[in-house]
Design goal:
Elements: E1 9-10, H1 16-29, H2 54-59, H3 81-90, H4 105-119, H5 123-135, E2 141-142, E3 177-179, H6 181-192, H7 201-206, E4 210-211, E5 220-221, E6 226-230, E7 233-242, E8 245-252, E9 257-263
Antiparallel strand pairs: 1-3, 2-3, 4-5, 5-6, 6-7, 7-8, 8-9
């Protein structure tokens, strides 16, 4: 790589911001509503999912579990989309929809499928055409990289290379975006400044929709972002962790301060750099 600033890293769960924005673009257009039941867009859902809405999926209040609740899924192995959805259907909800907060990457995989079906286009294409392109995020893409250049390779804490997670199906919508630090900074500003989403959708995304039970730093969750206060200032942010990659992106709107940390080693604890924003 000739220029480190051109290096593209996996954003891991920071990718959930793009998923939430894609859903809200379709809500803004009138194609979706936040109260749509997931079963309207995804067939074969079990009866206990009947009360699960897009709002529940976006805010991690659907009752779906996280990857540890799906040990039969190999995060590094490809699986057919239909088979992946059927696997999600077989695991009981952790609680009734809306009854509690529990972080769930599978919920965001489901949201990506909803975007595909409601937008009538592959998810990665929807992001490219409706999000990355219009905002000028020229180094950003979603899914498996193919032969694209300037890609970081993930490493464990000791420096050994790690195989990447599968991003076209298993990680779609949950951790599938690759980007550079410069593009992520542009993304944070575009979200905050309303360059992508009109009101009230921008505010809905970036302010608390539910309580998470965490401390003041991350006391709530919007759509695809944690929200709270640090040093007496409002902020929104997210961490990310895929095999071999760590990511952190946060914004203090009132101070016009942002921080982006992208790393291709498990040794990085990106969230500990948050105090830099408070100096």
């Amino acid at each position: 790589m000739d220029d480190a600033t051109e290096t593209r890293y996996q954003l891991a769960s920071v990718s959930k911001q793009f998923t939430a924005a894609a859903v809200l673009l379709l809500v803004q257009r009138g194609t979706l509503t936040l109260d749509d039941p997931v079963g309207r867009w995804i067939g074969g859902c079990p009866d206990e999912w009947r009360g699960v809405t897009l709002h529940h999926l976006l805010t991690h209040t659907s009752g779906l579990g996280h990857w540890d609740d799906y040990p039969m899924i190999d995060l590094a192995g490809r699986i057919e989309p239909g088979e992946l959805l059927e696997t999600f259907h077989t695991v009981p909800l952790r609680c009734s929809p809306g009854a509690g907060w529990s972080y769930s990457s599978p919920a965001y995989v489901l949201l990506a499928h909803v975007v595909e079906r409601a937008g009538d286009t592959p998810y990665r294409t929807f992001l490219a055409d409706r999000v990355f392109g219009p905002l000028g995020l020229t180094a950003t893409f979603a899914g498996a990289p193919g032969t694209r250049p300037n890609l970081a390779r993930g490493h464990d804490a000791a420096g050994a290379p790690l195989p990447t997670w599968e991003l076209d199906v298993v990680g779609m919508g949950a951790g599938d975006v690759w980007s550079t630090a410069a593009d992520v900074l542009m993304w944070l500003d575009a979200l905050q400044d309303g360059l992508l989403l009109n009101e009230p959708y921008r505010t809905l995304m970036l302010t608390q929709r539910v309580r998470t039970g965490g401390g003041a730093d991350a006391s709530g969750y919007g759509f695809g972002v944690y929200v709270g206060e640090a040093g007496g200032r409002r902020w929104w942010h997210h961490t990310g962790h895929n095999a071999g990659f760590k990511a952190f992106a946060g914004s203090f709107p009132e101070r016009d301060r942002r921080i982006v940390v992208l790393s291709n080693t498990e040794a990085t604890d990106a969230a500990t750099l948050r105090p830099l924003l408070l100096d």
